[in-house]
Give the backbone structure.
Amino acid sequence: MKAVFISDAHLNGNARDGYRYLMRFLDSLKGGADELFIVGDFFDFWFSDKNSVYPGFYDIVEKLLEIKKSGTNISFFEGNHDFFLGDYFAKYGIKVFPDGATIALDGKKMFVSHGDTVDDSNTAYLLLRGVLRSRLFYLIQKEMPSPILWCVSRIMSKISRSRNGGERSSNGLAVSMSTFAMEKFEKGFDAVILGHCHRPTLERRVINGRVKTFAILGDWISHYSYLLYDGGEFVMRSDVPPD
């Protein structure tokens, strides 16, 4: 079993280096990975539209569909910048998880989540998150013409970043995530894989004779990092293809 975990590309158009690097990296996965897990904030903004894709995302969405057709299963975990993804991607057989979920690889029990709800002390952010994911907001944004929806999406993205951006890279958030992982390990999970913090982290702990793995995936803004699971082992890697 070979699986790749990535998060926090924060794509907002096709002109940035991160977009180009990610396109090349995704190309390398075609036919070479069993599973691709995208663990939140892949897009810097995305709301719900069954038929329209923001023009700056055309190429990357087509690349994902190519990977799916090549035989790699794709799963999206929604983040704090991209949600209601299922309306578009589910029709292509791509799984979408609105929140964290349990997955199993090679008999290992893993908890995967974007990680933006790990720190439950950030009540202002959690309130905003609840509003943006509410049924009422879902229905309102579905009625918006696509250009207006994309404009609103960019505004919401900036608001979300201002509410939560400074904390993402802080030591405090990383510590909260580590504590969260320990709680999951005590409940029998073999691995906890999170995004959101933008700091690539890979730690192994032995608990009751079993190796447990805690990972924060980093980002595709400055680290270009991803987590590789291959043959039962986790490896954190960084990939910036040469021009």
Summary: The chain has a mean pLDDT of 86. Residues 146-168 form the longest helix (23 residues). The chain has one domain: 2-238.
